[in-house]
């Protein structure tokens, strides 16, 4: 059975550049950072992240998770986060693998196995940390080995990804994963409202319409939405707007006034005020101090 040393070697061998490396396996990305980074803002989608060297911290609203070689991070909904690599150096870079979760495959596995039926109520934050078990690590090693034989990826990668999901379902986050795959769960309802905000983040937010889409009262929406994302619906929308405006300015596509207007702000002063509150500096000063690499997902 593969151990952490083999998985680390595989990740290191297939990360020849700093930052995020895409792979021939569509849902798999690899990470390499040779220095500790300042906190970076981004949006995590449903995924599992397994660190093979170093340590990282991620914050969503009031929720904070720290994960390392012994504990993986599970994300069960799209959530704005602030992430920071805590341990990394040139000799011992931060190394990790991230696999996006496929809800349809999870649902199939639930039908084929004796996984406990999910509690349809909210299980808590979309971010959770659990122990990396040997069987999970072994399956991850076999997925990474496929990068050495790209011709095998179309046939074998889906099978190994399926095993990884099975191992996760058997682990400490079974309830979260089951809710992710079940259309009757509260998590699925909140994911529906999250999708509405992400698709229409430039438009004025109607909490009543959002609650109707999520099939719950406005008070229940606030409660469950904050439990999952650590943010209220309005705060969630603000994070999306400001992160997109920052991306546009960092890429040199727009100045602050144009970027603010393009993401839904009608008042430049309100845009500047909320931007400073989130990123710690007004737009022009923030962009001047940031490298282009800050565009990379975290």
Automatic annotation (TrEMBL):
Membrane-crossing residue ranges in chain numbering: none
MF annotations from Gene Ontology: DNA-binding transcription factor activity; sequence-specific DNA binding
Phosphoprotein found in the keyword field: no
SUPFAM superfamilies: Homeodomain-like (SSF46689)
Keywords tagged on the record: Transcription, Transcription regulation
Domain HTH araC/xylS-type: 191-289
Family matches, as PANTHER family: ARAC-FAMILY TRANSCRIPTIONAL REGULATOR, TRANSCRIPTIONAL REGULATORY PROTEIN
Name used for this protein in its record: AraC family transcriptional regulator CmrA
Species in which this protein is naturally found: Halovibrio salipaludis
């Amino acid at each position: 059975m593969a151990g952490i040393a083999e998985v680390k070697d595989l990740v290191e061998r297939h990360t020849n550049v700093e930052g995020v490396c895409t792979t021939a396996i569509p849902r798999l990305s690899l990470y390499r950072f040779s220095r500790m980074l300042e906190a970076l803002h981004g949006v995590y989608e449903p995924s599992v992240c397994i660190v093979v060297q170093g340590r990282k911290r991620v914050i969503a609203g009031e929720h904070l998770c720290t994960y390392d070689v012994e504990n993986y991070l599970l994300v069960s909904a799209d959530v704005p986060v602030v992430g920071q690599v805590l341990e990394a150096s040139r000799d011992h870079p931060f190394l990790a693998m991230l696999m996006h979760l496929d809800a349809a495959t999870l649902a199939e596995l639930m039908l084929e196995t004796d996984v406990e039926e999910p509690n349809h109520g909210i299980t808590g934050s979309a971010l959770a940390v659990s122990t990396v078990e040997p069987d999970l690590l072994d399956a991850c090693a076999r997925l990474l080995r496929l990068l050495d034989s790209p011709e095998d990826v179309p046939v074998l990668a889906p099978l190994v990804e399926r095993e990884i999901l099975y191992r996760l379902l058997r682990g400490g986050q079974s309830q979260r994963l089951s809710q992710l795959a079940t259309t009757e769960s509260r998590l699925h309802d909140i994911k529906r409202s999250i999708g509405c905000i992400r698709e229409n983040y430039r438009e004025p937010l109607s909490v009543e319409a959002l609650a109707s889409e999520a099939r719950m009262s406005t008070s229940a929406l606030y409660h469950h939405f904050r439990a999952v994302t650590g943010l209220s619906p309005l705060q969630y929308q603000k994070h999306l707007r400001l992160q997109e405006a920052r991306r546009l300015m960092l890429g040199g596509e727009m100045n602050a006034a144009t970027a603010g207007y393009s993401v839904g702000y009608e008042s430049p002063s309100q845009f500047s005020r909320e931007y400073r509150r989130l990123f710690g500096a007004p737009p022009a000063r923030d962009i001047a101090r940031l490298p282009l690499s800050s565009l990379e997902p975290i």
